[in-house]
Known about the structure:
By secondary structure, the protein is an alpha+beta fold.
Amino acid sequence: MDKFDWQIIQALQKNGRLTNQEIGDLIGLSASQCSRRRQLLEQKGIILGYTARIQQQALGLEVTAMIHINLRTHEAKSQQAFQELIEAEDNIQDAFSISGDADFILKVVAENLEQLSQFVTERLLSYNFIGHIKSYIVLKKIKEQNHFLIKPKGHGYHHTT
């Protein structure tokens, strides 16, 4: 990847709706060059897709929680079952396998505390491979971003806000 690829990624992280012409105007390439580079970035799996950011509360999802999960055992069968659970549950926005006191952290959204409680007790705790759950209710989002810090090889970090 050269500096133009990095600049294309940076521009698209700020605004995924930019046309190839608009990107070209920003970085000094033609629309066709931007199109070719963009397609290559998509084919290589660097650009995974384009989505709209939606305000969670506008959808009636008033509660966000971070849920720490410990599995009873770490055998492959439990890991696979847990992964299937994560993929099947729409309330789970993000899931991370971590080191430390918990095995996983889930970011979960719900309409209200009652729905969150129901999700934890009736869904998560119904699986025998889950050993321990700790829930943390998010009181306020201080920072939430959908882009990465860009560091082209041989250059310093470039923040993309």
